[in-house]
What we know:
There is one protein chain. By secondary structure, the chain is an alpha+beta fold. It has eight helices and 37 strands. Strands 1, 2, 3, 4, 5, 6, 7, 8 and 9 form a nine-stranded mixed beta sheet that branches. The chain has a five-stranded mixed beta sheet with strand order 10-16-15-12-13, with no helix packed on it.
Amino acid sequence: MIKILITLFTLGLLIAVSSASIDARMLNDRITEKGLNWSARDNNISSLSMDAKKMLLGLSDEAPQVNLSGTKPAAYNYPSEYNLRKVNGSDFCTGIRDQSGCGSCVAFAVTAAVESSYEVYNSNPSANLDLSEWDLFTRGGSCSAGWMFVPALEALRKYGICRESCYPYLTDEPRCAERSSQLVRIGSYKQLSSLDEVKWWVANKGPVITGMQVYEDFFNYNSGIYTATYGAFMGNHAVAIVGYSDSGKYWICKNSWGTLWGESGWFRISYTADTGFGSLGYYGLEFASSQQPPNEPDQPSGATKCVAGSSYSFMTSATDPAKNKVQYTFDWGDGTTNVTDFVDSGTSANASHIWSPTQFKSTYYVRARATNNKSLSSDWSSYLAVQIIDPSNRAPQTPSIPSGPASGKENIYYSFTTSATDAEGDRVKYTFDWGDGTQTATWLVSSGKASSAFHKWTAVGSYQVKAMATDSQGASSGWSEPLIFTIPANRPPAAPASPSGPVTGKENTYYSFTTSASDADGDKVKCTIDWGDATKSVTWLANSGTVVKSSHKWTSAGEYQIRAMATDSKGASSGWSEPLNFTIPANRPPETPAKPSGSDLGKARTYYSFATSAKDLEGDKVKFTFDWGDKTQSTTRSVNSGASLSSFHRWTAPGTYQVRAMATDGKGAASDWSEARNITISASSKSSGSTSAISESASSKSTRKSNTIRQSSRSVRHADS
Length: 721
């Protein structure tokens, strides 16, 4: 249910609030203007609504601000560069995760640090742990309010963290029964006191957990060394530092927004990024600990209904971090306990107990605690409720066959009803067996009164739904006749419509395309777009038949087939759609420039102006190269296609020279040389009087005139207009 609510809430944000994306091209222009070394692009995170973006920033504003020393104490010696992903050819980092629409970044940053620190501590980069962020986050975090570092680290220290498979992200199911046997625990955590200690920690112990202030442009981060450039403050975000570079002056960090964001989910950030990086603290994890108690034992297993005066056996097990032997104390809930002999770590042990005949009609709560041979004890396990019953009591009648639907879909709740009477008129409750290894018990109701229970099945198949009645004394009936409930096999979506969008375009320009697909079972679908250039994009899950959009750019000319494939929420995929052919024409060079216009006669050592123009067939900007016929050339700046541009030149020796022009577009394609204009230069130091010429020397003129011309000559010597 939690997962369903979060998904619906996130989709609500996406639908109800319009996107507040920054234009990536404008942002890249600003980055270039400021001389920064990073690039931006549109991505799956930047396209979210403003509220959906803020939901990702779950480091609480209540976290205290800290200031660190930048000095380097002698105790901290570390290399100038380090990257946990590249340690002598080994990768001590686990894969990028995705926190989706929940403010759980603190749990993701802490879990990332646990996984990698475990590999470093054990010198085993192949451990590749996948731990459950949800197991940690549900110890105190909130999707809407986020969490803080210290409470999260305290929860990690106290409870440990289990595998993802035991408690999947956003699940509403209970933790698996094997949790205690697969826990990863830390010995302690430490708040680091200087930037040099942070670097030393990364290079010796593993990732460092920290936070940063996020501004709007960070959502558009593509690659490079990030520095805050544009946009309003959005919130605080938790990340894990996995490396650094003193020469490049940046940190290397692991984010939790999936692999489509940033540098495949990772990012680099400048030491001076203007984001308050680290101002909410730096935290390192310690696996080594002098002594640790055993892990919390499993909930005791055994009978849940016991006849007073009879003996019943119960069992539990626990592991010890140091593999010490353990013994178990069973608390029977009636003021008595039993202690087992010592057994090996992880080995089960049994204990028996008899509840007296005076204790029937009562429920007792049985729990266990493990103590190792170093006299260190675990926390108590969870309780097992045991009801003590009177053997003279008669059981209720067998309930009626449960009534309810006979078929349905996976992961949908359905209601079923049954009833039974009790011979003594005692109140009864019903236990429904769902045929999938799970059961549900109702509240006590009056004898003969019907009661209902809800259930969902997670896999295709036929299930026998049965009911059993238990009276208030604890006596149970037999099982009813079954109702057969069937979940038919999932059908894949239909192949999507051929993508619609433009059929031609330019290199390195984003274009948007839409498609849609229907699912025969009404499941939500996502579309995978194959762009024909060996890359693919995946959309969000959307309702069956909803039109979805995705954008792409191609980096080279060619013909591309764009296809779409639909996948439903259960993982079943359609075939590929019919392709949309998209063409990026090969770049064509500009047209040959016009014959340069300018003087036909001139004097040596005097500047003359020549102009030309050319059109580019793709409308690209062009620049001109003038060949002056004296083994020298000049190149202008770029101007719009078809615009005229001038350049200046002087010749130092008499003669006839051919002035030609060549146009080059922004992609480097060059035209042929234009028709030549001849200019004849005669030997003279005096001005020719031409309006296109500028004399370099005029010793016979006044000082003021000489200065004016000299300054003018300097200003146009290498100019173009």
